[in-house]
């Protein structure tokens, strides 16, 4: 059993007869009244996100997990297929378990948390940034750079990202996987 002081991003807990992953949390100590922890929980089974507040010292049932490195192989439309890099076994996951499936390209190495009780995959953690090539974007309009203007661009995985006007097709860009935002252009 853990308590609210053990809450951290990525912790998997059992709550309301389901398994949830904590995706955001905030410890709040108001001037008047007891402290509490405001959390955003994502259901591992359904993918739904709910807000919940735990009072300080509340006991929560954490789930023991192991983290393994897997390589993303392909997406067949219904499932995403991964291969364990240690023993080469393959697993397939539904899209709701993935945090940013649109930013995952074939060959990407991710960390998958596996429940030690029943060996079921719980969540997939992407690297902090991915480098993707711009597949399509409109050319920037000259003279339209007075502010931080952006334009939509489609990356090689099919996801759409807003990029600055100077980015062209064929450029490689670094994208934050947590927010899906453009970070910088990458030169080889």
UniProtKB/TrEMBL annotation:
Belongs to the elongation factor P family. The gene is efp. Pathway: Protein biosynthesis; polypeptide chain elongation. This is Elongation factor P. GO terms for cellular component: cytosol. Residues 130-185 form the Elongation factor P C-terminal domain. Keywords: Cytoplasm, Elongation factor, Protein biosynthesis. One of its GO terms (biological process) is peptide biosynthetic process. It comes from Croceibacter atlanticus (strain ATCC BAA-628 / JCM 21780 / CIP 108009 / IAM 15332 / KCTC 12090 / HTCC2559). The keyword Cytoplasm applies. Residues 67-122 form the Translation elongation factor P/YeiP central domain. SUPFAM superfamilies: Nucleic acid-binding proteins, Translation proteins SH3-like domain. Pfam families: EFP, EFP_N, Elong-fact-P_C.
